[in-house]
Amino acid sequence: MLDVRAMQRTITERLGLPWVDTETEDTRAKLLMKALARKRFVILLDDVRKEFHLEDIGIPLPDTVNGSKIIMASREQDVCIEMGAQQSLIKMQLLGAQASWNLFFSNLSTDARRSIESSYSIKRQAEAITKSCQGLPLALNVTSRAMAGLKSLNDWRDAMSAISTDLIEIGGVEEIFQRMKYSYDKLDSTTKKCFLYCTLFPEYSSIRKEQLVDYWIAEGFIPQNQRWKGNVMIINKLKSACLLQETNSGQKVRLHNIIRHFGQWLANQESNFLVQSGQKVESVPEIEQWNGPQRISLMSNDIKNISLSPNCTNLETLLLQNNPNLKSLGPKFFKSMINLRVLDLSNTGIKELPECDALCQLHYLNLSQTPIIKLPKKFWVLKELRYLDLSLTDSLEETYDNCSKLLKLRILNLFRSHYGIREISNLNLDTLKELNFLGITICTEDVLKK
Q: Taking every annotated instance into account, which residue ranges of this chain make up the domain Disease resistance protein winged helix (predicted)?
């Protein structure tokens, strides 16, 4: 699905122009058209799936006068023709046998290369594995990295057997997924869970490392006192296995589109996920669909309200962030969510939370950038809560001294919250013995002393 806003933001940042969040897409397109019309540019458009008008993004049509270029990649030739690129089509071929072998061989360790060069039998096994990747660079990269340390003939036979045994007689992408699955199977159980968690995010989105680690800790994948394990070990393992990519900033990671679909394919086999993130849906799934999933992601949509009271005792993760038009939740919405550990409502229009007595296992709650006015009076029942984000809550006026009763809190963020800017008489930090992060805006001397 075309994300006009994301494309406009990328171009705006590359041009060094200010980003104004309140501007409409049409207004922004006109500004970008003017800015680009004065430049000679090259724009790369990857994975284009359907026709769209460049002018809607703010990209002027290239011509011989301005000398600008647009390079577009698509899986479908018809899309290229519809976009007017029929005169300069280049069909990308799969790698040939020698190129595939060169790519596969280049990712192996020195010891693995030596074993291949010194043993005809090992070389035959390695060549068979290379051939099974069918010239797809991504599959070759993922598989060869997973086998980089193999040395003995038995190691290579076991690797070939693992790929052959799992092979399902289905065509296309799923057949490639079976071959890529070898890298996933080599991961430890914790890293597998962390990888599948990444598939909850929208297609093409970048994910902050810090946010991922916060989720993983709340889910119990990583111990509270081993935050470094998420940043250093797990993310690096996934990058090394070519399952996760780091962005230029170094602060975020992303899933390649094919890898994301691969992860969802795995999740459908091994877990029970319901993912409709970033699909511009306006309503939540039917109540029957809430019964089984362990994790539900409806983030980055246009959902306006949720009135149902689902029976979802298995649910551990509910991600509803970035639904700015979501104004209300049904009064009994949380009633059966007795095992919920992660709840993200950030950047929504929620003004108040419904009854939350059932959320006795909740570890993570994000209400940042919401117009919430007050916390529920019985908010203190969330005794397992470790992470509470109330930052940028401009309307928050009353907490009923609930924060000081959440004795397991480790992270409390009140930065730029209306509550706490002038007076925090009922924020008794002395009771929060586990607290190791406090975000707060200090505007008066009394608040500073407190």
A: 200-260
